[in-house]
Structure prediction request, 233 residues.
Amino acid sequence: MSGKTKTGLIKSSIGKKVFMGLTGLFLCLFLAGHLAGNLQLLLPAEVARDQFNAYAKFMTTNPAVKLLSYLTYFSILFHAVDGLYLAWQNKQARPQAYYKKDDAANAGWASRNMAVLGTLLLVFIVIHMKSFWYEMHFGNVPVYASIEHGELKDLYTLTTTAFTEWWYVLIYVLSMGAVGFHLWHGFGSGFKSLGISHPVYTPLLNGFGKGFAVVVSVLFAILPVYLFLTSLN
Ligand code: HEM
Prediction:
């Protein structure tokens, strides 16, 4: 593919949809991995502290994981900026009356509100990364000597302490609702944007996407609620 054709693909709205699909599906993989790592927070505190902190050390220092992290930051930015641009373009292209009339009939609630849900997620990601990612990389997270893993930053205590505040837990639970609805439509839509369509496999993939949306959002939401409830004891 020539350089000119490549730029044309990125600039065209079909090209934009393909990149939206690719970045969105990559972010689904990120979410599955992130959830698996975070589920360690459900272990008993004496085990979880060292295990979670050693895991965080590996995730922030391993060169291959670092590369994946950069890909994640890029995907979030690209997906958000391009998603908002495509939503704006769609709105411009459709006369208002037609838009209102056909919208509800043609698509579900999540599908019609992807841009709003995505914007809520972007706000959540900014709050979330300030609380944990920024503190881990640039803040003053206390360091201690673990017998098994050597020097570790205590991200576990930072995380569990954050969820002792009910309003912070509420922000997370509501945001996980947005994650669920965004994925409910987004997973299948990602494959569609890549031009992948099959009479048998596409409905199966869409069904899997809906299951994925429910499982991921519910399990993510359980974490802050669990940490809040255990902090009451
Ligand atoms: C209860 C739910 C969640 C908890 C407890 C949690 C916890 C954490 C923690 C402790 C970190 C810092 C780790 C590090 O810097 O390596 C982190 C990073 C991050 N989280 Fe979450 N997270 C949750 C849900 C989510 C969700 C739903 C998203 C996206 C919609 C998300 C996106 C991110 C991103 C993009 C990073 C930076 C990752 C990187 O640097 O590679 N998190 N999270």
Remarks:
- Residues 201-232 form the longest helix (32 residues).
- The chain is about 80% helix and 5% strand.
